[in-house]
Amino acid sequence: MKHSPMFKHAIESFEHGLEHFLDGTERSRKFALLHIDHSIELMLKEKCVQLGKSIYKSDGNTLGIHEVFSSLGKSQISIPEQARLEELHDLRNTVQHKG
Prior knowledge:
The chain is an all-alpha fold. It has four helices and no strands.
């Protein structure tokens, strides 16, 4: 099975996040959170693409993670971990934008 570049990038980001997590330092934990969240977002976007949905908004930017969850929900895709994944993403935003 051939995987898309976005899927491959998601896997690489996840692997890199795990490497940081296993390092165990405070700095590495920060990067683990950033990379693992990034990989989750890419995986969700990949699922949208597989369902034939666009991941692009009218301004050319891609959907954010909350918009992707909404799009998947309209396709009757249930993600039991959604609340925790959104919480993780919100934590990632705090780390990314506020330190």
